[in-house]
Amino acid sequence: MKPIYVLNGPNLNRLGKREPAIYGTTTLAEVEQLCRGAAGTRPLEFRQTNSEEALINWVHEAIDEGAGIIINPAAFTFTSIALLDALKMFEGPVIEFHISNIHRREAIYHRSYVSMRADVVMAGLGAEGYATAVQSLLRLLERQGGETASATP
């Protein structure tokens, strides 16, 4: 069974400390546990980087080895055509995820390059919404490829 990739961009390693009024107090380690719990028996690659190059390389890895991608590209959402180009090569489902509702924030956060490829965009659910994203991706995989969802109820 191919893994799902949960990829996180810059500054998300500071969750729990960074602007808690916007991002909450949940840490990235806690987010990972939420994702693993939601994935059930499905293998899950959970990663975070402050490097655009690393994020793109992980998308390339997912192209060869992954079933689906959940990506919170953070600031790269609004700046990286290279990330968009990498995601366009991925044939499985892609969920773009943001902890905050980017459309209620400053105008610089309103144009997402990643949305041009994403099958689903989720924003504003808070850090706990990652679990919802994992469950949604499992359902997409089940519908698209006949795979059985392996999440726990």
Automatic annotation (TrEMBL):
<feature type="active site" description="Proton acceptor">
    <location>
        <position position="23"/>
    </location>
</feature>
<feature type="binding site">
    <location>
        <begin position="99"/>
        <end position="100"/>
    </location>
    <ligand>
        <name>substrate</name>
    </ligand>
</feature>
<comment type="function">
    <text>Catalyzes a trans-dehydration via an enolate intermediate.</text>
</comment>
<dbReference type="GO" id="GO:0009423">
    <property type="term" value="P:chorismate biosynthetic process"/>
</dbReference>
<feature type="active site" description="Proton donor">
    <location>
        <position position="98"/>
    </location>
</feature>
<dbReference type="InterPro" id="IPR036441">
    <property type="entry name" value="DHquinase_II_sf"/>
</dbReference>
<protein>
    <recommendedName>
        <fullName>3-dehydroquinate dehydratase</fullName>
        <ecNumber>4.2.1.10</ecNumber>
    </recommendedName>
</protein>
<dbReference type="InterPro" id="IPR001874">
    <property type="entry name" value="DHquinase_II"/>
</dbReference>
<keyword id="KW-0057">Aromatic amino acid biosynthesis</keyword>
<dbReference type="GO" id="GO:0009073">
    <property type="term" value="P:aromatic amino acid family biosynthetic process"/>
</dbReference>
<keyword id="KW-0028">Amino-acid biosynthesis</keyword>
<keyword id="KW-0456">Lyase</keyword>
<feature type="binding site">
    <location>
        <position position="72"/>
    </location>
    <ligand>
        <name>substrate</name>
    </ligand>
</feature>
<feature type="site" description="Transition state stabilizer">
    <location>
        <position position="18"/>
    </location>
</feature>
<dbReference type="GO" id="GO:0003855">
    <property type="term" value="F:3-dehydroquinate dehydratase activity"/>
</dbReference>
<dbReference type="Pfam" id="PF01220">
    <property type="entry name" value="DHquinase_II"/>
</dbReference>
<dbReference type="GO" id="GO:0019631">
    <property type="term" value="P:quinate catabolic process"/>
</dbReference>
<dbReference type="GO" id="GO:0008652">
    <property type="term" value="P:amino acid biosynthetic process"/>
</dbReference>
<comment type="pathway">
    <text>Metabolic intermediate biosynthesis; chorismate biosynthesis; chorismate from D-erythrose 4-phosphate and phosphoenolpyruvate: step 3/7.</text>
</comment>
<comment type="subunit">
    <text>Homododecamer.</text>
</comment>
<dbReference type="InterPro" id="IPR018509">
    <property type="entry name" value="DHquinase_II_CS"/>
</dbReference>
<comment type="similarity">
    <text>Belongs to the type-II 3-dehydroquinase family.</text>
</comment>
<feature type="binding site">
    <location>
        <position position="85"/>
    </location>
    <ligand>
        <name>substrate</name>
    </ligand>
</feature>
